Structure formats: structure tokens, C-alpha cells
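Key result, reporting period 2: structure in, sequence out.
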């Protein structure tokens, strides 16, 4: 016997499927992945976005690179392999949140195109909204809110993105926010306008999205 549309079969076990949880939350779950150089403004925008969506009644969670490195990813460094594992774990966590009907707002440097592709593949193409938070190295260095560029220049930080490790500009992105040309408020409004339509709850008769 086939499982009802609201259930997901995992082996012989039937668990609540994503569509059932999305009906409960009244929203379409999504992974919103902000990436860019340290100092580009991605964490600021991710935090502001989550706050605004929460105020609008959306069930959200924030996954930030610095925060995950204090727990789940505490044992990872900044080698290419560790960066890949950092992104892989974050994308898998975002996918799990999506399966429970939650909007995952993610902020990670994600320096290479292959890493962004991997994150999209894990989350699922229709569940993934990629936002490039753009700012030049010179601007990010001048901002240096966390003092990381100064530490990298002083030799305290190794394999620092943009200095010792490459950051690959995207060939395409779902949205580009240039924080040198736009202030925080304008960037946030552009981001909200782009994601709001993607969070509209599915109609009852729509096919289940239990992947």
C-alpha cells in the first residue's frame, strides 16, 4: 500500500512528510544561501532577513558560519577539505530544517563554485535560493568589522579567503546584492522582495514535496 501524500516512507518506516509540515507552518520551506567575502555584509543581511521574516510570521532558523564553527563544525579548519566539509554539513542541516517546514537562512563564505553547486545539490535545486553578497576585497579589508584581515596580515590567520585562498566570483546567482552600491536597508528590501514569493504556502492539491 502506498503511503499517503502527507507521509514519507523510509524503508519500512512511515514518517510525516514535508508537505504535511508545510501545511502546518503555512509556508513553503526554503534554503536561502548568502555567500561572499568576509566583511561583505552577508551575516548582517542574513540576521536582518531572519528577523524580518520572523516578524512576518515565518518559521525560520539562522545558520551562520561563525556560529557553526563553535559547535557542529568546531573541529574543522580552513583547508580545502575542511571548507568542503563545513559547507556539506551546513547544507545537510539546512535540508533537514526544510524537511520540517522551516526556512533556513544561511551565511557562509562558500568561496568556490563547486562548493555552491554541492550545497544546491544537497538542498535540492527547487529548495535553494543563492544570494551573492558582493563587495571588493579593498572594501571588505577597510570594513574589517571582526579584525580578521588585520590578523591575516599579521600572520595569525592562515589560508584566509581572498588573501591566501581564492574566492571565485559566481558565474550566475539567483540574486546579487552589491553592498558597495546599496546600503543595508536597500539590500534587505531587495532580498525580501525576491524571497517572499518563494515562501507562499503550497495549495492543498499541489503534489507533495517530500524529498
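The corresponding designed sequence is given below.
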Amino acid at each position: 500500500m502506498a503511503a499517503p501524500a502527507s507521509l514519507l516512507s523510509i524503508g519500512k518506516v512511515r514518517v510525516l512528510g514535508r508537505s504535511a509540515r508545510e501545511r502546518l507552518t503555512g509556508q513553503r520551506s526554503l534554503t536561502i544561501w548568502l555567500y561572499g567575502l568576509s566583511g561583505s555584509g552577508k551575516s548582517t543581511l542574513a540576521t536582518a532577513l531572519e528577523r524580518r521574516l520572523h516578524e512576518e510570521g515565518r518559521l525560520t532558523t539562522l545558520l551562520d558560519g561563525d556560529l557553526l564553527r563553535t559547535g557542529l563544525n568546531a573541529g574543522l579548519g580552513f583547508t580545502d577539505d575542511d571548507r568542503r566539509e563545513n559547507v556539506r554539513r551546513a547544507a545537510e542541516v539546512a535540508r533537514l530544517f526544510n524537511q520540517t517546514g522551516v526556512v533556513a537562512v544561511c551565511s557562509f563564505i562558500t568561496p568556490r563554485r563547486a562548493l555552491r553547486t554541492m550545497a544546491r545539490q544537497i538542498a535540492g535545486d527547487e529548495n535553494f535560493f543563492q544570494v551573492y553578497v558582493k563587495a571588493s576585497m579593498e572594501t571588505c579589508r577597510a570594513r574589517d568589522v571582526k579584525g580578521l584581515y588585520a590578523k591575516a596580515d599579521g600572520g595569525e590567520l592562515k589560508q584566509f579567503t581572498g588573501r591566501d585562498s581564492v574566492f571565485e566570483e559566481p558565474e550566475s546567482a539567483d540574486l546579487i546584492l552589491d553592498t558597495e552600491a546599496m546600503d543595508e536597508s536597500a539590500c534587505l528590501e531587495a532580498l525580501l522582495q525576491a524571497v517572499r514569493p518563494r515562501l507562499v504556502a503550497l495549495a492543498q492539491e499541489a503534489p507533495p514535496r517530500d524529498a
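The beta strands are 7-10, 13-16, 31-35, 60-64, 103-107, 128-134, 175-178. The longest helix spans residues 80-99. This case is discussed further under Risks and Mitigation.
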